[in-house]
Each structure stands twice: as C-alpha cells, then as structure tokens.
C-alpha cells in the first residue's frame, strides 16, 4: 500500500505528494496528473488467479473506474500525506464520506456518541438514517465538556463523532482528551476536519482514528467542486471503506472533481495563511465596532476556548461569526449593503461568503432550538476569503452603517 510521504514539509507535499510518480505512468511525463476519464481499462491478458483485492492501483493496475481511477488515486494519496495518514478514500461529497464512515463501523444496536453542535446535514444523517432506519442509538452530547463525553460512552459505543471548531459558533472540543477516554472503551473517534483543513489541525496526530472532509470547502478551495474524503491509519477500516463503501455502495469522486481538487489543494497552505490573517484582522475590527454585539473567533483572546485552540490547532482558521446589535431587519439591511462579500451558504473558497444562519443554514430548526444553541436572529457567519483585507473591511463598514443601533450608540446616550 501507499506509504505516507512525511519526509518533506507540508507546503511541498501539498504541491507534489501522490502525483509525480503517477503522472509519469502515462508515458509523457505530465507535470500534473491528467484527468483519466476512462470508465474501464484494457487487460493485457486474463489471469484467473487475480481477484479484485489483488488489483493494486499504486502498482499501476486498473480494472474499472468505480474501483479505482488514476486521477482519484493521486488525490487520495495526496490527502493521506497531508493528514499524516496511511490511507485515503475520496467520495462524491463530504456527506457521502461521513455516511461511508458510519456504514463501515456501525451495526444495529450499536451506539454512536456525537457532538450536539454538528453540521446540520450530518446531524440529520445521524438521526434520520442511522437512528431511524438502522436502529443505531445516537446520543448527542456537549463535547466542549470532556466529562459529558465520558459519561455518554458505554460498552455499546462504537464511534464518537466530533467536529471542531463547529459551525457557526466556533466551539471546540479537545480531540486528544476525548480520544484517550474513547479508546479506553474501544470506541473509534472520527473528526470532521473540514473547518481547519490539515494545514491547521491534524486529528490523527491527536489520537483520532479517522478524519473526514468535505473537500468542497478549503481543500478544493475554489467553490467549484463537491467532494469528500476519509483518511485513516487503520488498515482494517480502510479496507472496509474501500470495499463496502467505494466499491459496493459506489459513491466515489469523479475524475474531473478529483482533478479540480488535486489542483486546488496545491495552494492550500498559501490560502489558509491568507484566510487566517484576513479573518484575524476582521475579527478585531468587528470586535471594536459599536454595531456588533459579539464576535466568535478562536483567535480572539476573548474566545472561551482560545487556549485550547492555541494548543490543539496550528492556526485559527478563516471562519468567524458575529452578532449584530439590533433586529433581524438590521441584519438584512446590513447584508443588503455588502458588495464585495457574497451572500451565500458554504465556506472555504477564495471568495468571502456571508450568511445568516437563522434564515439560511439553520432555518430548519425552530426558534427555540436555535436559541438553545445560541443562534440569534442577527448572527452572521463569515467565511473570510483571500481578497485584500482593506476592501473586505470597507465592505463590512458600509454594511454596518445600515445597522440602526449604530446611530444611537455613536450619538451617545
Ligand atoms: C459542508 C460540510 C459538510 C458536508 O459536505 P458536502 O460536501 O456538502 O456534502 C460536512 N461537514 C462540514 C463541517 C461541512 O462544512
């Protein structure tokens, strides 16, 4: 199998890992992986002793596009290298990647312990698919509290599912502490690392058993592909994911999306550094602004888990959220005024995107549920892009002038 390439620095591996050797296989020495569109591959001779398991893409053997594809393989090898894992499997979406994890590990009667503050689609999958259809007992806990996770894990618990930081309030959980107590009871720990990417957080190093990504976000980074991946060091789990999920369930990433993602991830380190420095500058600007009631960004010292963020992450990321003073009408007026920052769901692309969770991503929750998790009517989530930070600040400033609370504060009471 593939050996993780960790002898070179992250920035180098982001550009070349997994790709160079494969690019030479076509015979032209392409500097980048070609998009291999073939759905099937001609065999030189029939060898009846060769089973599916013996077909090794890393040795240049291919049989059929769902089983393996050179472009997808190059991406998988690169993602394994970047997360510091042995094996990676790419799927048709982040959602498909997370479903593949659950379907590889859980059986009816098992328990799944999950952070209550999850990506809404993942939460829906756990309740509607795993609990309702597959009879898995799903327990949501406040994973910011290690003791709460500890109390929820029992001998039936096979998987603990974490996201850190969470969306949209940027809450963190302590991966290392949770992995330790989960392993004491033989449960696996999975971390959705979409928000930070392997550039800022390496869950496998912190003791997690597997990492999942929506590559749609930072890894591809250009808002032009939907994809997902799972990375693990666990050979048995990797085999299960490949055989029962990629090959048998079939939700693999297409060659074209593999190519785009392979191309996008080359600049992951550059983008992440710029996302973060822009996000930090905007968090500080918003924090000082009279029209802003609260800013949630792990890079601010006022963030309740700033110390954990500093210890567990190598950066604070590019997503922040903030609550405007005033009403939802003020928030709508603010959003309406923005011209550089696009009103849209999703995150992690080079362009800045803003959304109002109460009316968009978290609208399906009823107001009481939103209140319970701290999503107010004026909470805005900003995925800070890589544009010039002064232009972004000016855009926000123009929008904030539309918040009626500013006049009363600025005018003095
Ligand atoms: C977007 C997202 C997902 C889902 O990924 P898709 O590629 O849209 O299926 C899962 N987790 C997190 C944290 C996300 O942001």
TrEMBL record:
Pfam families: Cys_Met_Meta_PP. GO terms for biological process: cysteine biosynthetic process via cystathionine; transsulfuration. GO terms for molecular function: cystathionine gamma-lyase activity; pyridoxal phosphate binding. It comes from Halovivax ruber (strain DSM 18193 / JCM 13892 / XH-70). Transmembrane segments: none annotated. CDD domains: CGS_like (cd00614). PROSITE patterns: CYS_MET_METAB_PP. This is Cystathionine beta-lyase/cystathionine gamma-synthase. GO terms for cellular component: cytoplasm. Coiled coil: none annotated. Belongs to the trans-sulfuration enzymes family. Keywords: Lyase, Pyridoxal phosphate. InterPro entries: Cys/Met-Metab_PyrdxlP-dep_enz (IPR000277), Cys_met_metab_PP (IPR054542), PyrdxlP-dep_Trfase (IPR015424), PyrdxlP-dep_Trfase_major (IPR015421), PyrdxlP-dep_Trfase_small (IPR015422). Its cofactor is pyridoxal 5'-phosphate.
């Amino acid at each position: 199998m593939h050996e993780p390439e960790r002898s070179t620095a992250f920035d180098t591996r982001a550009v070349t890992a997994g790709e160079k050797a494969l690019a030479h296989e076509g015979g032209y020495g392409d500097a980048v992986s070609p998009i291999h569109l073939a759905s099937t591959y001609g065999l030189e001779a029939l060898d009846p002793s060769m089973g599916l398991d013996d077909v090794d893409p890393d040795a240049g053997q291919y049989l059929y596009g769902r089983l393996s594809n050179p472009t997808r393989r190059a991406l998988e090898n690169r993602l394994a290298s970047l997360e510091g894992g042995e094996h990676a499997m790419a799927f048709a979406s982040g959602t498909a990647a997370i479903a593949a994890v659950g379907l590889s590990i859980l059986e009816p009667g098992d328990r799944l312990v999950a952070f209550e503050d999850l990506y809404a689609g993942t939460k829906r999958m756990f309740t509607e698919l795993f609990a309702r259809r597959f009879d898995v007992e799903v327990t949501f806990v406040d994973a910011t509290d290690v003791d709460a996770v500890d109390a929820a894990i029992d001998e039936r618990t096979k998987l603990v599912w974490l996201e850190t930081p969470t969306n949209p309030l940027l809450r963190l959980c302590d991966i290392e502490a949770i992995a330790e107590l989960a392993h004491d009871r033989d449960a696996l720990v999975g971390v959705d690392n979409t928000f930070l990417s392997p550039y800022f957080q390496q869950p496998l190093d912190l003791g997690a058993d597997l990492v999942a990504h929506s590559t749609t976000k930072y890894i591809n980074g250009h808002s032009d592909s939907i994809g997902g991946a799972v990375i693990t060091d666990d050979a048995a789990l990797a085999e299960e994911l490949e055989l029962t999920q990629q090959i048998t369930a079939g939700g693999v990433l297409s060659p074209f999306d593999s190519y785009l993602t392979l191309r996008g991830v080359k600049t992951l380190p550059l983008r992440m550094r710029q996302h973060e420095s822009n996000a930090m500058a905007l968090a500080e600007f918003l924090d000082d602004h009279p029209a802003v009631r609260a800013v949630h960004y792990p890079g601010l010292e006022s963030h309740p888990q700033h110390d954990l963020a500093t210890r567990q992450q190598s950066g604070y990321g590019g997503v922040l959220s903030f609550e405007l003073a005033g009403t939802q009408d003020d928030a709508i007026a603010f959003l309406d005024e923005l011209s550089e920052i696009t009103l849209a769901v999703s995150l992690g692309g080079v362009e800045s995107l803003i959304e109002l969770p109460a009316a968009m991503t978290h609208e399906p929750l009823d107001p009481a549920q939103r209140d319970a998790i701290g999503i107010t009517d004026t909470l805005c989530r900003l995925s800070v892009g890589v544009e010039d930070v002064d232009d972004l600040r000016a855009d926000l400033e123009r929008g904030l002038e539309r918040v009626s609370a500013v006049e009363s504060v600025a005018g003095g009471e």
